[in-house]
Request: fold
Amino acid sequence: MKFSNHDTIVGFIAGKMQKLGFTIKYMEGNHSSVLIVKPELPPAISTHRPDVFGITTTGIIAIGEAKMPSDFYTKRTKTQMFDFVNLIRTDTRNLLILGTVEGCKDELRQLLSSLGIQIDHQIDIMEIPFQFLPVNAASR
Reply:
């Protein structure tokens, strides 16, 4: 099974969600390391489906989204960020986990800031080291 950098980052996000106590309800891409049965797609959040969607037994939700640097400034990414943040803000326990490649966390933080999105306890940005990615992402 061939994995892309995007799929690998999605896998790391799902693993973090599981460690935080979320049950993965939906996950985009090809993965063998995360044990889930892919159910039907979740309803779109506005017009976007997240890469990973998890929920706890108490109804707290987590949204996960992998972003490659080439995606940062697209209209799609910008509208996704607004849609996902609007949903997580409905409950202070909800979580948005963003994943990107090593060395790009600050640029992703700057993008969110430029969109007027405050990074707080509900938004976590993960950087995945190059050695864990199947395709060299150092060239961006």
Q: What stands out?
A: The chain has a mean pLDDT of 86. The longest strand covers residues 95-101. The first helix runs from residue 5 to 19. The CA atoms of residues 49 and 119 lie 21 Å apart.
